[in-house]
Structures are given as structure tokens and as C-alpha cells.
Amino acid sequence: MSAAKLATSGRLPLPARYRAFFLVLLALVTTIPALGLVFTAGGKAEAHGTPMKPGSRTFLCWQDGLTDTGEIKPVNPACAAAAQESGTTPFYNWFSVLRSDGAGRTRGFVPDGELCSGGNTNFTGFNQPRDDWPLTHLTAGATVDFSYNAWAAHPGWFYVYITKDGFDPTQPITWNDMEEQPFLSVDHPPLNGSPGTVEANYSWTGALPEGKDGRHIIYMVWQRSDSQETFYSCSDVVFDGGNGEVTGIKDPGNPPTEPPPGDCSATRRTTGSWSGGYQSEVTVTNTGDVPMLGWMVDWTLPDGQAIDSLWSGTMTVQGQEVMVHNAGWNGALDPGESTTFGYVVSGSGGDPATDLTCQVG
């Protein structure tokens, strides 16, 4: 497939060293190395979040709306309109604009007019065509620092697109508004800080496109390399000679760090056992003070054990490390609400007393 056809096919290109693995995992067609400027960094990237520099709509609206009491009361008119349409739960879950079945797809998968929500119905309020979203001021062609929040741990790639010249923010954003190729592609950048915090992020440096002027959208796609889960985000920017200043939120100089977006717990019980295996059920509870749209539970299986089947969740396994995400129907939990998933393990040793880690996301 030619580079031009690949760029418009709606499927993101993969670095060569991951190609065979990802083809088996996702049953995708043959791919080529990422287009655009590629950054490769050592170590394992860890991400479940959204851009902080330049800030995405969900991140900056969360900053704008969060009060000292932990309530969401947006001041920015576009953020307030998003809350009116979608409620305030998406604001607490600003890091979860994702599609579990994304598989890196873009054009032909995410519908026109729904790019900022990634087609995720929880975030439709952030698709509204308006010219008063929180805004980051930039200079065309400048070399800048990008920062992407790392709320939870997954490896992946980042693809950074921008709108074409003449973009009109008061019209619904379509794929025809976007440049066909990413101007930056970032290969598994390293993590800074501890996941599960607002401060945790990966950072990289790259050049902004030359010749841009006025209002634009920087559109970032984060594609996990260990599952089909893909994240989408819109960052509203203006090329006016700025150096990353943010306007349109109530206190851009002091982004909130408390309260955290939420918390959850996971407890396990054995529901059956036999020679060479057992069955377990895990209860996930929203132990925070705010609603959440998704959760992840991870633990380490003893050597010699393997999960044969799992239900009411989606599983990723790397060696003996197990990570389970919510299914499409049991991720949204109000404070105090619980759900369950179950699994069957083969191998000796019985159900171990290993700790489970639960994260919102």
C-alpha cells in the first residue's frame, strides 16, 4: 500500500519492530513505519490520559470547571455548554476519551462531526462547533514541548495532526478539515512521574507546522500497542506568536491537582476450585466521590498459571501480568456503586492471595 493511500485509509501506521505482534493481536492489514516526524524513545510508555500541552478540551474544561469543593461548575461558555449536553461526569473523566475497539482507526471509523469525542457517546458535548473553547497560543514553526497526561499504564504511539488552512471553528469538524498525515509521530515515549496522578506525563519536543495562522485544532491520537484501545482528543490553538499561554479558563496559571478525578477498589473471591484450576470473581467499587466512566484492574499471576477465559471485562496479558478493563456496559459507576467480572485459571497452586490494583480510566 502506498504512503498516500495509507495516510487516507483511516488506520494509523505502526513502527516496524511492533508490526508482527500487532498484526497478530488485531488482525490488521500490512502496514508501514509511521509518517511524519518520528520520535523514538527507550523504555515502556505508560498512558491513559489526554494532552496537557497543548491542553485538550476535556482537560482544560476540567481545570476551568473544578471548584474548591470538588464540584464541576464551568465558567468558560463552551465548557458550560458541554456540561449542559453531556453532564459533568465526563469532566471528572477527562482522561477517558477513548474507543476500546479503535485499533488505531481514524477516517471512516470516527464519524465526521464527532472527532473531539472520538465517537464516544459519553463526550458528545465536546464536539460542539464554537469559537470560545479554552485556547492555547502558539507560534507556527516553533519547537515546543508536548505533554500528555499518563493516568494509567499502557504502551503505545502518539500521532499528532492539525487542521488545514482556512479551518472554521464554528463549523462541525470533519476529516476533510484535517491534514491527511500527522506532522508528528511519537514512538513509545518515556513516562515522567507516577501514573494515577495529574502530574504524571510523557513529554517530547517537536516542531509545529510552518505557515499556520489563526485558529486551528491539534488532533492527537494515542494508540495502545497491547490492545485495540485508542484515544482521541482536540486541542484548540491559535497561531498568533504565542508561547503556550492558555486563555479562556478561570485560572490558567494554577491548574488544579486536587481532588483527584476518582478512586476505585477491587476485591476477589474464589467461586470454585478443582485439581489444576479455579474460578474467581472480582468486585470493582467506585470508592471516590465522583462518578467514573471506566476502570482497570491489574495483578500478577503466579508462574505456571494462565487465564483460560474471562467475562464482563476485556483482558490484556503480558507474561504473568494481567490487566482487565471494564466491558462496554459496566464501566460507568456512581460513588459507592459496584460491578463484577469473572475468570477461569488453569495451573497449580490455587487462587493466590496477590493484591489487586484498581485505577479509574
From TrEMBL:
SMART domains listed in its UniProt record: CBD_II
UniProt name for this protein: Lytic polysaccharide monooxygenase
Originating organism: Streptomyces himalayensis subsp. himalayensis
Gene3D superfamilies associated with the record: 2.60.40.290, chitin-binding protein cbp21
SUPFAM superfamilies, per the entry: Carbohydrate-binding domain (SSF49384), E set domains (SSF81296)
PANTHER family, sorted: CHITIN-BINDING TYPE-4 DOMAIN-CONTAINING PROTEIN, GLCNAC-BINDING PROTEIN A
Residue numbers spanned by region Disordered: 243-276
GO molecular function term, any single one: monooxygenase activity
Protein's UniProt keywords contain Oxidoreductase: yes
Record's compositionally biased regions (Polar residues): 267-276
